[in-house]
Design a protein that fits this description.
This protein is an all-alpha fold. The two termini are 29 Å apart.
Length: 211
């Protein structure tokens, strides 16, 4: 397998995974609908930063060591699950009360909102050990003779990030078309309810599912 074929093959796989409805897409939709494209792009950047950290860790063997240590994996899994459930419960409470589920609130300065959105996207991915397991499982499948595993891991991460960013741009643009409708209080409460439920569900699944 040549380097070009490996990267293109991985890009196709990354696209299929990215298009699958999940936590990342739910976060982007929620931030885009409630706080606008700036916060949504910041959340997307945080998600991609988390992916990059895990990819580099996997390439360097850190994720493999984590997977081999049941205690470390379990601890990270429970921390990640608790964080997701925490965020989800706050959004569900916001949906019931009709208030913002964010620490800084929708009326906070744009820079503050974007910082909070970035931290959310980054932390959710960083505290999910299954993202690391994903890279540990995939990197060997796309190895190219003559390319160091660490280099290949970084290249795959760059491809994955490029695919994610392209999709996030399209998703945010689509949200912008119906931004007026999404700004309605009832719709925002509904989004908080849906995304909060997704977060709680992912957190529970992460806590109950072993490696």
């Amino acid at each position: 397998m040549t380097l070009t074929v490996a990267l293109l093959s991985f890009a196709l796989l990354a696209l299929l995974i990215t298009l699958t409805p999940g936590l990342d897409n739910a976060l982007i939709l929620r931030f885009a609908g409630r706080q606008g494209p700036g916060a949504a792009f910041a959340a997307g950047a945080g998600i991609c930063a988390g992916l990059f950290v895990w990819a580099v860790a996997a390439a360097l063997g850190v994720s493999a060591l984590l997977a081999a240590s049941e205690l470390a994996y379990t601890a990270l899994r429970w921390i990640g699950a608790a964080y997701m459930v925490y965020l989800g419960v706050r959004m569900l409470i916001a949906a019931v009360r009709g208030t913002s589920g964010d620490h800084d609130g929708d009326a906070a300065p744009a820079l503050v909102r974007r910082g909070q959105a970035f931290r959310t996207g980054f932390t959710v991915n960083l505290l999910n050990p299954k993202v690391g397991a994903f890279y540990v499982a995939l990197i060997p499948q796309f190895m190219v003779p003559g390319v160091a595993p660490a280099v290949m891991g970084v290249l795959l991460a760059v491809v994955h990030i490029a695919v994610c960013l392209a999709w996030f741009v399209l998703l945010i643009a689509l949200v912008g078309v119906v931004s007026g409708w999404l700004r309605r209080p009832a719709v925002q409460r509904g989004m908080d309810g849906v995304v909060g439920s997704v977060l709680v569900g992912f957190g529970a699944k992460l806590a109950l599912t072993r490696a």
